[in-house]
Amino acid sequence: VEADMRTSVMLRALVLALCLGLTTAKASPGVCVNQQGVPPFALAGKPPAKGKGLTFCEEYRGETCCDAKTTDNVRRVAAHMQLGGFKIQCREAWTQLECSICDPRAGIMSKTKVCAHQCDAIYRACKDDYFTEDKLQRLTPCRSSDTICTKLSDWADDMGGGQMCEDAGYEVVSAGKSKADGGWCFDGPNVPKAGASQRSSAQKKDRSRRKGKGGSAGEIAKSGFYLVVAAVLVLGYYAMRAYAGNRRGGSHSTARMAARMAAEARAQRANAYAKASH
Q1: Which of 60, 81, 192, 246 has CA atoms 20 to 30 A from the CA of 114?
Q2: What is the pLDDT of residues 36-66, one digit of tens each?
Q3: Does residue 166 contact residue 148 with C-beta atoms inside 8 Å?
Q4: Is 72 exposed, middle or buried (0-12, 13-18, 19+ CB in 10 A)?
Q5: Quick one: 237 exposed, middle or buried, by C-beta within 10 A (0-12, 13-18, 19+)?
Q6: Is the model's pTM score more than 0.85?
Q7: What is the Cα–Cα distance from 45 to 107, expressed in whole angstroms?
Q8: What is the dihedral of CA 150, 151, 156, 162, to 10 degrees?
Q9: SS3 content of the chain, % helix, strand, coil (to 5)
Q10: Tens digit of each residue's pLDDT (9 = 90 or more) over 238-271
């Protein structure tokens, strides 16, 4: 009975450990990831937090990966566009695109995802303004110091909004497909509520588990996977010991019973012999 109680307690502890591991996996927040062509985040490797010292893109100050270096970079682009005589519609649309990096849902991605319809809207606003390539060969608004600039509509005969965003270094996705998958793409300065980046990250991990896709080693460690494995191994070890103890206990009980039966048989034979002698 005592062994059964020990086994029951171990099984309950195992179930509890599994539940804790799954809860930890769902609660693991996304962390800020540096992107090519953007100044490194001060919060790189940490969850998005309240913005400090932002000089531009202030609509994201409630929760962001950005800091002063990031927004200074965007502010310079906006200043060049104003000095270069870009139409106000283009300036506003393009700076919103540049500020998308400060959305906490974008900051935890290796490349910002932009909805296809948003790219088309920006293209329509900027098609008559002039653009060039930066040192990373990404599409960028023309500056006064640039010697070769081309009207956006002439950049390529068949260029549209999607190609424009890709040439500028963004990932273009269908808004419908992104939402169907539970994901996100930038579709304008729609500032998320606090904690949106953590919920988005948790949803992605849930989808990855359902589709059988593995996460990175860091995500697995953070999700409590190793904790669950360790708990299973420890509990399995003690369960085997308990089982072995039951086996040994059963063997000892059988031996004692056999000894008692042998002693009773000897006593009966001795009584029978004594009666026969009389």
Answers
A1: 81
A2: 989 999 999 999 999 989 999 999 999 999 9
A3: no
A4: middle
A5: exposed
A6: no
A7: 11
A8: 120
A9: 60, 5, 35
A10: 555 555 555 444 455 555 665 566 667 666 666 6
Q: What are phi and psi of 172, to 5 degrees?
A: -95, 130
- For the record, the structure tokens of 194 come out as 């606090």
Sign of the C-alpha dihedral computed for residues 143, 148, 153 and 158 taken in this order = negative
Phi-psi region of 147 (alpha: psi -120 to 50; beta: other; left: phi over 0): alpha
Token output for 173 = 């996705």
Answer with the residue of higher pLDDT: 155 or 68.
Answer: 68
**Residue 139 three-state SS:** strand
- At 199, the pLDDT band (50, 70, 90 cuts) reads very low
Quote the tokens at residue 200. 């988005």
φ/ψ of 39, rounded to 5, equals -55, 140
Q: What is the spatial distance between Cα 248 and Cα 37, in angstroms, rounded to a whole number?
A: 68
